[in-house]
Amino acid sequence: AFGNPAVYMEKFLLQPRHIEIQVLADTHGNALWLGERDCSMQRRHQKILEEAPAPGIPRRLIERIGTRCADACKKIGYRGAGTFEFLYENGEFYFIEMNTRVQVEHPVTELITGIDIVVEQIRIAAGEKLTVRQRGVQFNGHSIECRINAEDPYKFTPSPGRITTWHVPGGPGVRVDSHAYANYFVPPNYDSMIGKIIVHGATREQAIARMRIALSEMVVDGIQTNIPLHRDLMVDARFIEGGTSIHYLEEYLAARHQG
């Protein structure tokens, strides 16, 4: 900018959403995209809730950006699972970065496509071809993931310690990914996430209803978790409406604090 290579200019976005595209690429020139994820529910740029597909974004825009991501993988010779991250506002996508790994939120994509991303990643590393082609990727229903963190649900102070009770939800369309168990000690030295609840429903409304039930069934004693925050978000009118920006959660928390 201004004829100075040391000055870099970006467009300022007021209320963007965080949208990402999941890709897979093998060593045989095959690459595909597995739909999008909406990761806009964030606090201090850290995601706490993700869903797929992204509410309210026209499919033609998603298909266009997804195809471009897969084509980019072919052109650069990318191999493995990866995610292209974008800010989205007013019908336009703005590239942020590419994460060259399997991300925390990959299960929501697995539940709407039926494709095991970790298995595909291992197959790719072994030099095998992808087991599916783009035309074979089918998107079914809606999925939501809540990250369960060992922390105060509203002050966000870490809550390390020993878990005395650990009861996870179950039933149709409910999945729990976790390393924790009763008598597990949550250390203070590492990331506070101790698990993820992922649900799938035929519609977004059904997925939200299943997440409400799953969160009500989960019991963790001995430490604090952010489960109460997730329960509140599942009945929040703006979340239910869909399409909140990356700033919404902090605005929600500020309003709650003032109230």
Architecture blueprint of SSEs:
Blueprint: E1 17-25, E2 31-43, E3 46-52, H1 59-76, E4 80-89, E5 92-99, H2 106-113, H3 117-125, E6 142-149, E7 161-162, E8 165-167, E9 174-178, E10 185-186, E11 193-201, H4 204-217, E12 219-221, H5 227-233, H6 237-241, H7 248-258
Helix pairs in contact: 4-5
Task: Note down, in words, how this protein is organized.
The chain contains seven helices and twelve strands. The chain is an alpha+beta fold and 259 residues long. It has a single domain, classed as ATP-grasp fold, B domain (D-amino Acid Aminotransferase, Chain A, domain 1, 2-Layer Sandwich), CATH 3.30.470.20. It has an eight-stranded antiparallel β-sheet, sandwiched between helices. Helix 4 runs antiparallel to helix 5. The longest helix has 18 residues, at 59-76. The model has no long low-confidence stretch (mean pLDDT 97).
As a whole number of angstroms, the C-alpha radius of gyration is 19 Å
Highest-level CATH class? Alpha Beta
State the distance separating the first and last CA atoms: 44 Å
Quaternary organisation of the protein chains: single chain
Total number of distinct structural domains: 1
Order of helices and strands: EEEHEEHHEEEEEEHEHHH
Q: Main traits of this protein?
A:
31% strand, two-stranded antiparallel sheet, alpha+beta, 12 strands, 8-stranded antiparallel β-sheet, D-amino Acid Aminotransferase, Chain A, domain 1, 259 residues, 7 helices
